[in-house]
């Protein structure tokens, strides 16, 4: 299939709107840490990153960004088959979404997760495709940027509330890592170093510094 140099075409826009509708319906009842507004922020940032990189398939990036959290294991039964779940959507737009592009969207969706990347790297299964796929990098960076900075702080607190996790546990009173602030140290402060695009790294530096400042204030207030 020939990819148009003008994005989006009218038919691509119809497909993107349908993907957004699918996402909104699927995630309507999620808590604020993983709600449709999170996905819309990821879409916005992913497209910003993608437009600055030559040869990136913007249609694939936009669809993958919109679909990336619909089957998040924290909200749907583990083992849900992504290929089967999205097959009707891909079939509906097969005139503009070739089998090759649909496969790329699916593959990006399946590999966006921080946890997935961590497990694959630990198993020696993070390969050349992961390192070279610019569409994956744009969506990954956008998703991870939404986990740090001011919005990241709010999302961490929101998810902690959902799972009944304390915001802060003084080390003398228990497992300090089993808290929202503990999650900062376990994961969030490491995100900056795993960003892949040049613009993502620039934005990540700013948001990382905000996290460090926030942690300093928490330490001052609690200790």
Automatic annotation (TrEMBL):
Annotated signal sequence range: none
Gene3D superfamilies associated with the record: 1.10.3210.50
Superkingdom of origin: Eukaryota
Domain HD/PDEase: 31-157
Annotated CDD domains: HDc
InterPro entries: HD/PDEase_dom, HD_domain
Protein name: HD/PDEase domain-containing protein
Organism classification: Eukaryota, Fungi, Dikarya, Basidiomycota, Agaricomycotina
């Amino acid at each position: 299939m020939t990819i148009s140099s003008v994005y989006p075409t009218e038919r691509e826009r119809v497909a993107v709107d349908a993907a957004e509708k699918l996402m909104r319906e699927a995630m309507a009842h999620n808590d604020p840490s993983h709600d449709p507004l999170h996905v819309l922020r990821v879409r916005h940032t992913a497209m910003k990153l993608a437009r600055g990189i030559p040869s990136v398939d913007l249609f694939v990036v936009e669809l993958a960004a919109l679909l990336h959290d619909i089957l998040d294991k924290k909200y749907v039964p583990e083992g849900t088959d992504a290929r089967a779940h999205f097959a009707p959507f891909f079939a509906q737009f097969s005139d503009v979404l070739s089998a090759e592009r649909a496969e790329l969207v699916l593959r990006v969706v399946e590999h966006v997760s921080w946890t997935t990347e961590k497990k694959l790297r630990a198993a020696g299964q993070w390969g050349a495709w992961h390192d070279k796929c610019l569409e994956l990098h744009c969506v990954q960076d956008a998703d991870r940027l939404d986990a740090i900075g001011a919005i990241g702080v709010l999302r961490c607190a929101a998810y902690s509330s959902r799972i009944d996790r304390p915001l802060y546990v003084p080390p003398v009173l228990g497992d300090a890592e089993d808290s929202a602030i503990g999650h900062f140290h376990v994961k969030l402060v490491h995100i900056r170093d795993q960003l892949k695009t040049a613009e993502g790294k620039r934005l990540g530096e700013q948001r990382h510094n905000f996290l460090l400042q926030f942690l300093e204030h928490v330490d001052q207030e609690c200790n």
